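Hi Q.,

Before the meeting this afternoon, I wanted you to have the pyridoxal-5'-phosphate prediction in hand. No need to reply - just skim if you have a minute. The sequence and ligand are here:
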Amino acid sequence: MQPKKNIVHLPVYQPGKPMEEVKRELGLTEVIKLASNENPFGCSEKAKEAIAAEIANTSIYPDGGAVQLTEALAKQLGVEPNQIIFGAGSDEVILMIARAFFEAGDETVMASHTFPQYKHNAEIEGAVCIEVPLKDGTHDLDAMLAAITERTKVVWICNPNNPTGTMVTHDQVAEFMDKVPSHVLVVLDEAYAEYNMTSEYPDVFQLLSTYKNLISLRTFSKIYGLASLRIGYGVGHPEVIRSINQVREPFNTSRYGQAAALAAIHDRSFINRCREVNAAGIRYLTEQFERMGLSFYPAHGNFIMVEVGRPAAEVFNGLLRQGFIVRGGHQLDFPTKIRVTVGSQEQNEKFIQALEQVLSEVAAEV
Ligand SMILES: *Cc1c(COP(=O)(O)O)cnc(C)c1O
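Predicted structure with the ligand bound:
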């Protein structure tokens, strides 16, 4: 047996340690996970009710086309139903884009560093990844444009960028789209779009009315708090959506995911509350970082990448002993930074206390 050459070098995804294991190993009674940008307030009560009601239908296959959800979402977003495709998380939409668009030897352009799934799926399909360094933690759109060749099939823009949290603006994306050749599909991964508080954030629906070669990826895993149900979507031109639909598995999203998402999009007050509390959390955390003399990237999602001036692994382990799981930059190629998810105000305050304690114990790098 011989798997295909493209995958031989790929690592198997290493999940973070389960909370229960961390508690047992370190003898902690409480562990706060600020590592995966999950919603600290869970999900809408309406979504929970919808999930409970769906239990009766567990033996029945879901509607593969997610017709009811697609229609409701299209109405809310002001697009046509044939402009939307659902996936098992936006991760699966990324996978389907790679599967639908790449042939061996095609090129694809992305930032370094950004969300790892673009590269992962492109490599599985045999595409060549051209990685363009971030500038001050932000996508360098001019350099990405210069990296496009006639072999380029897809360009990935993660906005805000995971793991740095920075954003590119509407005007920057519009200018970029004006210059990108029409044979290139531009993927705007907007997993944190609903957290946005600035008018400069791209209005992707306006851009979609001008550019056929653009797709926005959204998810129910982040602000909607439905990560375990694996449901996300892409919005783009009907032709692009059709191509992706051709490679979609027949029943790729679950009844629970669809029902919860349908209820969740109608509970705007939950989303508005989460957005506001998150913005206050970012203000609090960044003020505290400033007080502590720590620099950070401007945060536009529900997480912040902060420079701790010390080996990230040591700070990560110190925080773990205090009962906090964050994302250590040592695993992301940011050796002296950590990425922390914005929690509830109580969690944020406890986190700052723990961080101060850890930074007093770990020697600063000179
Ligand atoms: C979390 C995340 C996703 C994917 O989330 P799903 O749970 O697969 O919907 C996609 N892109 C970015 C940048 C993310 O942070």
